[in-house]
UniProtKB/TrEMBL annotation, chains A, B:
The lineage of its organism: Bacteria, Bacillati, Actinomycetota, Actinomycetes, Streptosporangiales. Keywords: DNA-binding, Transcription, Transcription regulation. InterPro entries: HTH_LacI, LacI/GalR-like_sensor, Lambda_DNA-bd_dom_sf, Peripla_BP_I. This is LacI family DNA-binding transcriptional regulator. SUPFAM superfamilies: lambda repressor-like DNA-binding domains (SSF47413), Periplasmic binding protein-like I (SSF53822).
Length: 342, 342
DNA sequence: ACGTGTACCACAAACGTTTTCATACTTCCG
DNA sequence: CGGAAGTATGAAAACGTTTGTGGTACACGT
């Protein structure tokens, strides 16, 4: 049985008593097998098993000074872009001594800060995915616990990044090759690093090719955000649209087809639009037509973040933290059905 | 500053020394204000603030015997059905003393068991959403920590449930009214409680109305599972299809339109199908045509689960646990575009 | 002047581990 | 045979809190 008759859990001393040894020996039998006699060890293990002994994590944390928990904060669990990230991190830690706390900020900066503060008390490390908080705030958090950043750079902590450049370049080249010369960018949240990056490379690529770019938004980075965006795009005189992410692209697509605007332009029919998204969310390949989008190696990103965190935790914080290394993973364009000649 | 010059965090004794009182007084000033003089309290609080004092959770947990964490285990984070559930639970606990651990079992029973075991060491309570583990396993877990079940019944713990009956009844009545007499059910995972419930009420409803029901599957409860299902449905001689959930319904819809099968049947064109889903996932209202589906009050369910857990935790486990109360929330049919006359 | 009550606070024990230090017993070698 | 080196174990301190017990100081009534 796992619990004593009185409902209380077995302690290390109970095991020790049953095995006829001291508590220290039990502890050693469990944590440093080479320090105890093989026979005693066997006996101790058997007794521990018989009592259903489970070390008390709080007591361990107290003496060891580490919780063996890591935190993971993402802007929105419901956003399918983050699902593979979350799963990647969880998969990495699944068979380690660490457990992971996951929280969702609802895309809200204040919530993000509160959550980070609350979590920093209960974890050894915190993985912040696309955080929106200010740089100084970030430094404050980083002073309390070790952190790893995903899709955000800061001197305060190491980061793993998506390199939007290649995907963006390919997207612009593709659209240019199809003859488009006047395009729109549907912006995401203004304080989002991803948004700034995407806009930057998009602007650079367009400028280099003589494409005129108008920026609309910002829009809520959700499906419904795309509805408003679609209507505003139609009021502009553009032939191709880059959306902040797949969700708004999908929203745009839905609204456009509902309004009878062909995607992409149908030869002969006036007023069609080409559309490119970002993220390659699962749903993106399942629409009619399937969405042309820039794919991100999100699972790889997650693994890199988890591995970086794990490494930092393992080296036991020797003196000054190592100069933040930044992994950077390339994106690429997936040409599907929503882009076509002007 | 939040950390001492040597990097170590301020302890309660440091605060006590600075304020010229004992550690106990500091503790009481923080936890039981009415027991200490207002003036001393003010001074203590100021000193605590000045040192950036944060109580050590491990030490608190050790002496209090509670972690002030709760765990939440769901089958699949990426499944949009669970997103509102997760958010609901998180929202409930956001401004309480509790933090929530979230984990994802990847729809795998073994992982679910491992996760539950691992979590039970670190939390005061565990919310299990649609668990697949066996009843005896469930009892084992329940003996280690207090648990609340969502969408699963067991004598071992209280549960919050969705009442599929009304939604199912409405769906069958709707389809019957449209003239359908031979339908298919696309089954989900065999060991899933939701699947059993849905099938049961569906079978009952059909039998009561003289509708012939063929069961296909089980299918993977995902979008891609719907592809295979669609092909198999077309090999059957049915006019309406009930899918295990929206994801597979969406997959079916996508595959069907790709194969040129009208949804719902077009008068004059042979071989069309009516389609009804389950869950009312966000995407369901955004397809063409939008999906007729049975909506679940998932957020309400989450709130109920969180509240039940909170209550159980608050009453401090007096003797035997109270007889499992089970909240039950009604579902209902949303008639949209994928169902029509035969 | 003396108990009685009250308000405030300090002391110390306790929570369940890990780890340092000391000790007892072996073994080995000169 | 004596001591050094090694092996296996136990006692006790430490981690940072909370809380029960007790003591001091003061006000009050007699």
């Amino acid at each position: 049985m796992s619990t004593a008759p009185d409902g209380s859990r077995a302690t290390i001393r109970a095991v020790a008593r049953l095995a006829g040894v001291s508590a220290s020996t039990v502890s050693r039998a469990l944590n440093a097998p080479e320090l105890v006699n093989a026979e005693t060890r066997r006996r101790v293990l058997e007794c521990a098993d018989r009592l259903g002994y489970q070390p008390n994590r709080a007591a361990q944390s107290l003496v060891l000074g580490r919780t063996r928990n890591v935190g993971l904060i993402v802007p929105d669990i419901a956003n399918p872009f983050y699902a593979p990230f979350i799963k990647g991190v969880e998969a990495h830690f699944r068979d380690t001594e660490y457990a992971v706390f996951l929280a969702d900020t609802d895309e809200d900066t204040a919530t993000e800060v509160r959550l980070a503060e609350a979590m920093s008390e209960r974890v050894d490390g915190l993985i912040l995915c696309a955080p929106r908080m200010s740089g100084t705030r970030l430094r404050t958090v980083a002073s309390k616990t070790t952190i790893v950043l995903a899709n955000r750079v800061s001197r305060a902590a190491p980061s793993v990044l998506l390199d939007f450049r290649p995907g963006m370049e390919q997207a612009v080249a593709h659209v240019h090759a199809l003859g488009h010369r006047r395009c729109a960018y549907l912006a995401g949240p203004a304080n989002s690093w991803s948004n700034r990056q995407r806009r930057r490379y998009l602007a650079a690529g367009c400028a280099a090719r003589g494409i005129e770019l108008v920026e609309l938004g910002p829009y809520e980075p959700r499906f419904t955000g795309g509805f408003r965006a679609a209507d505003e795009v139609l009021a502009q005189d553009v032939t191709a649209v880059f959306a902040y992410n797949d969700l708004v692209a999908l929203g745009v697509l839905s609204r456009l087809t509902a309004r009878g605007v062909p995607v992409p332009a149908r030869p002969g029919t006036p007023g069609g639009l080409s559309l490119v998204g970002f993220d390659d969310v699962p749903m993106a390949s399942m629409t009619h037509p399937p969405l042309t989008t820039v794919a991100m190696p999100v699972t790889a990103l997650a693994r890199a973040a988890a591995a970086a965190m794990h490494a930092m935790l393992a080296e036991g914080a020797p003196g000054a933290p190592p100069p933040p290394p930044a992994a950077e993973l390339a994106t690429r364009l997936l040409i599907r059905g929503t882009t076509g000649p002007i």
